[in-house]
Specification:
The structure is a single chain. This protein is mainly alpha-helical and about 675 residues long. It folds into 2 domains: about 30-295 and about 300-485, Up-down Bundle (Amino acid/polyamine transporter I), CATH 1.20.1740; about 500-670, 3-Layer(aba) Sandwich (Rossmann fold). The protein contains 24 helices and 6 strands. The chain has helices spanning about 5-10, 30-40, 45-55, 65-90, 95-105, 105-140, 145-160, 165-195, 220-230, 240-245, 255-280, 290-295, 305-315, 320-350, 370-385, 390-395, 400-425, 430-455, 460-490, 510-525, 540-550, 570-580, 610-615, 630-635; strands at about 500-505, 530-535, 555-560, 585-595, 620-630, 670. A 6-stranded mixed beta sheet has the order 3-2-1-4-5-6, sandwiched between helices. The longest helix is centred in the middle third of the chain and has 34 residues, at about 320-350. The radius of gyration is 33 Å and the shape is elongated. It starts with 6 loop residues before the first helix and ends in an 8-residue tail after the last strand.
């Protein structure tokens, strides 16, 4: 089939050579939207969740918003500074996982990895659900299709990312920059209105909110405030993605990654402060349970905080309001792109370290880790279906994983600075500043982790506590399995040399395919060669013995009795007995195999060779040689034997190898498939 018409090529684009990997690496302007869309977009739902939790205590509790927001901003600043240190010290792409592995050991590293993998899945689920929520805020009639919209966006994101990092970055850069520009325009317009004494009033400003949480004593008040802080800390999610994605940056990688981290931190903090400030100024109310808090149902879906600010500052129905909603929805949907880059990179590092299947280490046609992307997509789709794309429900699972990795990573960096100071690999000044920043970071993130665990456990975070140990167990035992395999197959001085070379050709009748298999066996010049016939039918065996003699064959024919009409078991017993008598003698088993060109032709063949090969794979010391006999139909449909079509080279279709004219007929090629004791 013409490769340019291949559906996979149409979806993903032309395959990229490994030599083009450098061209797929990212400049800072493209890396910012790819790796920062999650933390930048979290300002759309982090403040919203904080205001929602505070509103549970009544209108008066909103006065705590500035203090809680200030702590979140301080925490975000410390974490950004901390990860700049991680980028410089560990630029290979493992982030907190690599920090923990090199400084704290295997088990803490696997804890970090399990937390990060879960957090990446939740990043996709929460971002897509929040983006869908903002679309519905602008177009309430779409509310019944919330789940379908969310699923559709995940599938589209996966398809775009499978086309390659650079292409997805270019596609996602415009919406991210549009969001940043529109939010800053909204903040600037709000400041102008304040200076000129123009009113800024949110649609929900007139709500008379009733407390639904019991805040009758100081402990309950503290619990509600801590819960609001935990929800607001969602603004920190995704900060680690740049540290995990350093290998995707252009040279100089460390300098570019640190600069991108600084840009991301400055933009996110500015937008967070602006949204919180104008949320308070415009008297935005976002309610978890409108019926209980207001005493009546709302007329339609509740508008998001960003949507209410857009109405208050730009005006309801204005073009800027719809641009803001479009940009917010787009960046929230594309925030999942942070995970689509971070998850595959981290999973490839885990596969390299043998804590994950090796399939996650392979780059696809477009030089991306496509197996990791598909795994992430399936997990995110499952969450959207289970939680019906509900932001408030999904966000309860959020933050816990990322703060687990934050905390362990910061502790690992403290060990790094101490060790570096002792062995002289870092200067005294570097060690002092690193210890100070990472020490404060470890203290703050550990505190937040305790708060998040305490406040969110009964609200859904218990599921993360269940999943993390399961994922830890899977990765730990995957590592043990690969270690056992490595120990089994490593060189120990006994691998080479044998006591002989023996070949058998499995034959059932005299025909061209079977004689061709015999021809190849003879051409290899084995020390000893036998032809074996399995006597599943005694009458057929006698007839074959006569055919063999009449044909004048000089090679010994051995008839193996099969009273139960099996083919594999008698052959395996014969080979095992032969090997027991002759020690470490190598055995080659030759079998012909029909190659057909149409799917329906398979119905007319018994596939006995495949079944025998599958069982012979487990016989020690045995090599299987499949000698294909291509039927005429196979030649017609074999894409590797056709001549190049006009324009193939121009379209990037590789030239197909042509059969050499001196080959003996169309079946002069044979393939060695399965090898002795092959593990992979």
């Amino acid at each position: 089939m013409n490769e340019s018409l291949d559906p996979k090529r149409l979806l993903l684009g032309k395959r990229l050579s490994t030599k083009k990997l450098e061209g797929e690496l990212l400049p800072k302007t493209i890396a910012l939207p790819i790796f920062s869309s999650d933390p930048l977009s979290s300002v759309a739902y982090g403040p919203q969740e904080m205001l929602m939790i505070l509103a549970l205590g009544g209108f008066s509790f909103l006065s705590f918003t500035p203090a809680i927001a200030s702590v979140v901003v301080l925490l975000l600043s410390i974490v950004v500074l901390s990860y700049r240190k991680v980028i410089a010290a560990y630029p290979s792409g493992g982030g907190d996982y690599e920090v923990a592995k090199k400084n704290l050991g295997e088990k803490p590293a696997i804890v970090v990895a399990s937390a990060l993998l879960i957090d990446y899945v939740l990043t996709v689920a929460v971002s897509i659900a929040a983006g869908t929520d903002n679309i519905i805020s602008a177009y309430p009639t779409l509310d019944p299709f919330r789940v379908e919209i969310a699923i559709g966006f995940i599938v589209v994101l996966c398809a775009v990312n499978l086309r390659g990092v650079r292409e997805s970055g270019i596609a996602f850069a415009l919406p991210t920059y549009l969001f940043i520009g529109t939010v800053f325009l909204m903040i600037s317009t709000g400041l102008f209105k304040l200076i000129t004494n123009q009113p800024i009033v949110a649609p929900s400003a007139g709500y008379e909110v009733v407390a639904v949480e019991n805040v009758s004593n100081s402990m309950l008040v503290l619990f509600l405030l801590l819960r609001a802080f935990a929800s607001g800390s969602a603004a920190l999610t995704g900060v680690e993605a740049i540290a995990n994605g350093v290998p995707a940056f252009r040279e100089p990688k460390i300098k570019n990654a640190k600069a991108t981290m600084a840009w991301m931190g400055g933009i996110a903090i500015s937008m967070f402060i602006g949204i919180i400030s104008f949320g308070l100024i415009s008297k935005v109310h976002y309610l978890e349970d409108p019926l209980a808090q207001l005493g009546h149902e709302l007329d339609g879906p509740q508008q998001s905080v960003i949507a209410q600010l857009g109405v208050a500052i730009f005006g309801d129905g204005s073009i800027l309001f719809y641009i803001l909603q479009f940009a917010t929805a787009a960046v929230l949907l594309l925030a999942a792109n942070t995970a689509f880059n971070g998850f595959p990179l981290l999973s490839s590092v885990l596969a390299k370290d043998k804590y994950a299947p090796k399939a996650l280490l392979t780059r696809g046609d477009r030089l991306v880790y496509s197996n990791g992307m598909l795994s992430l997509t399936l997990a995110a789709l499952a969450l959207e279906l289970i939680y019906q794309a509900d932001v408030s429900a999904l966000i309860q699972l959020y933050v816990l994983g990322v703060f687990t990795s934050f905390t362990i990573g910061q502790i690992g960096m403290l060990v790094h600075w101490k060790r570096g100071r002792q062995d002289g690999t870092v200067t005294k000044r570097e060690a002092l500043s690193g210890t100070l920043i990472n020490g404060i970071g470890a203290t703050m993130t550990a505190t937040v982790l305790v708060i998040v665990t305490f406040t969110k456990f009964t609200h859904g975070a218990w599921l993360v506590f269940l999943l993390m140990p399961i994922l830890f167990w899977v990765m730990y035992n995957t590592g043990r399995y690969y270690k056992a395999i490595d120990e089994e197959i490593k060189l120990d001085g006994t691998q080479f040399g044998s006591d002989g070379d023996y070949a058998v050709v499995l034959m059932d009748k005299l025909n061209k395919p079977q004689l061709k298999a015999l021809d190849y066996a003879i051409s290899v010049n084995h020390n000893k060669l036998d032809v074996i016939h399995i006597a599943a039918d005694p009458h057929r065996a006698e007839a074959f013995k006569k055919e063999w003699k009449d044909y004048g064959m000089k090679i010994p024919l051995k008839i193996i009795e099969s009273p139960y009409r099996e083919f594999s078991t008698p052959l395996i017993e014969y080979l095992e007995n032969h090997r027991a008598r002759h020690g470490r003698e190598r055995i080659a088993v030759y079998m012909p195999k029909y190659i057909v060109g149409h799917w329906w032709e398979h119905i007319f063949h018994n596939h006995r060779a495949n079944r025998i090969m599958r069982r012979l794979m487990y016989v020690p010391g045995t090599m299987l040689v499949t000698v294909p006999w291509r039927m005429r139909s196979a030649e017609k449909f074999n894409p590797f034997l056709r001549a190049p079509l006009p324009g193939d080279s121009r379209r990037g279709v590789p030239n197909r190898p042509q059969p050499r004219k001196h080959h003996r007929g169309r079946n002069a090629v044979f393939v060695i498939e399965a090898k002795d004791d092959d593990v992979e």
